[in-house]
Design goal:
By secondary structure, the protein is of the alpha+beta class. About 45% of the residues lie in helices and about 20% in strands. It has four helices and five strands; from the N terminus they run H-E-E-H-H-E-E-E-H. It has helices at about 1-20, 45-50, 70-80, 120-160; strands at about 30-35, 40-45, 85-90, 95-105, 110-115. The radius of gyration is 29 Å and the shape is elongated.
């Protein structure tokens, strides 16, 4: 009981720092999720809800994070004590690319995830990569055509190089 109250108090203090107050969350483009050590969602801001298509915070508050995200990264950070910074992750269930940082604060007994939606940038990068690949393939194809032209014209040039026959 005492640990539960302490965790909730710590979450409220930390969350109030991030969210200013529960009725008007701090406006940031980054998705922020705060979990307790049992990996239950304590706070989630509107940007995180938008990334994960969650209508209301109350839909996930108090629930296990596994309902919305893979808990492996949170467990790893808690076990190792080493934070993860700007790790690019594809969230298949939401069809979004995010750069996420996960921090474990032992003193407050919370895990915080900050996500930046990089879906548009990633789609642009993939599109540029496809264009580059297409350009390389078309240039390679052009050089093959030139080689084919050279092969066709080779007999002509070989005949010209032959010494003329004396009569």
């Amino acid at each position: 009981m005492h640990g539960e109250v302490r965790t909730r108090c710590a979450s409220v203090v930390f969350a109030s720092f991030l969210f200013i107050d529960a009725s008007r969350p701090f406006n940031t483009p980054n998705g922020i999720i705060v979990l307790n050590e049992a990996l239950e969602v304590q706070q989630i801001n509107s940007a995180a809800r938008k990334i994960m298509n969650i209508r209301n915070a109350s839909d996930v508050l108090g629930d296990q994070v596994i309902r919305i995200l893979d808990p492996k990264v949170f467990l790893d950070v808690m076990q190792t004590g080493r934070s993860i910074h700007d790790e690019k992750v594809y969230l298949a269930e939401y069809q979004k690319y995010v750069e996420q940082s996960v921090i474990y604060d032992k003193s407050y007994r919370i895990v915080m995830c900050i996500m930046r939606d990089v879906t548009e940038e990633e789609h642009e990068r993939i599109q540029k990569e496809k264009i580059s690949q297409h350009t390389i393939e078309s240039q390679t194809g052009a050089s093959k055509n030139r080689c084919a032209w050279c092969r066709k014209s080779l007999p002509f040039w070989e005949r010209r190089r032959q010494k003329p026959k004396l009569r």
